[in-house]
């Protein structure tokens, strides 16, 4: 078991894993659709690939979340996911056939997407009761994301097939990092309350029951879904639009760097911000800032002006992520935490990708990115008012 001294020691291995993983995620999220566009796919075809892959990701996230909760061997599950993702990332070099690429995008997503919520779950449980806040470790992911954004745009030189080799390197390094994780499942350290044991015996303690009985948790997941719709459209199609208004791979890299670097101070200080303002007020501000971001991107036609507009992501993305993950870690029973975090990720990110995968591609081709962004801006500002009315208690 972890001693208090070991908890107070800075978890450098976790920090390094976040840095490397999010460096890989930047490369994949930012440049995959540019690669697909470069090999001849239209926005509608790209949207079809995204939607098909999202179905596989949906079932994969739920499956691996259940496995990690039931077995308690969450680090082992992480290693398995890293290994399979590594194999599929290198398989992209085999052929550019549409059906094969579609299959690979699906298989890779099924291994890569479940890593994020599971890694967050392991980190939050490891840090529990210690002096280090999750946001301080998660800031490492933002640092890796922003550093790779800055470097990748200059090194790719508009040749996007190199992203899969970079991904493979990042996955190998993540696998190495898991060898140093000293995670002890809380299952061994926490005693179940009598009501928890009774609930397990009667079968009333299902995941959906835990989630749907908690209106605040539903509200947080719903707000993350609304936020995820815009983020999904931005990551999938804005880089393509950005290059059409004068951007290139270097400017795309700088654009994503600006998005990511703006998150670091907020991840480090979000715990203090929430204590001072309250989670509901923080989410209200996040909704308004996100709405302003989409509105401005819908109106700006200069790639150099679009870059500072995206720095509004810093507060909003951090607030949404921090509030939901910490609420789950503090309010949801241990045996449901990984699955609840996966469910939140599925509903927000995966459903966002599914809704704005094919549909986003059609809208991009038919009405254009600016009109879609303007609509998202109004929608997200309204969602912020709804989030501000949530009653969120963060105490354990």
What do these coordinates show?
This protein is mainly alpha-helical and 396 residues long. It has helices at residues 4-8, 12-38, 43-71, 74-90, 98-112, 115-127, 134-156, 163-178, 194-202, 207-212, 215-244, 249-261, 264-277, 279-299, 303-309, 313-331, 334-366, 369-387. α4 (74-90) runs antiparallel to α5 and α14 packs antiparallel against α16 (313-331). The radius of gyration is 20 Å and the shape is globular. It starts with a helix and ends in a 9-residue tail after the last helix. 50% of the residues are buried.
In short:
This protein has 396 residues and is mainly α. The chain is built from 18 helices and no strands.
The average pLDDT score comes to 81
Strand content: under 5%
Number of helices: 18
The major β-sheet equals:
none
| Envelope shape | globular
Low-confidence stretches: 187-204
Q: What structural category characterises the helix and strand content?
A: mainly alpha
Strands, total number? 0
Report the order of strands and helices.
HHHHHHHHHHHHHHHHHH
How large, in whole angstroms, is the Cα Rg?
20 Å
Helix content: over 70%
Distance between the termini: 21 Å
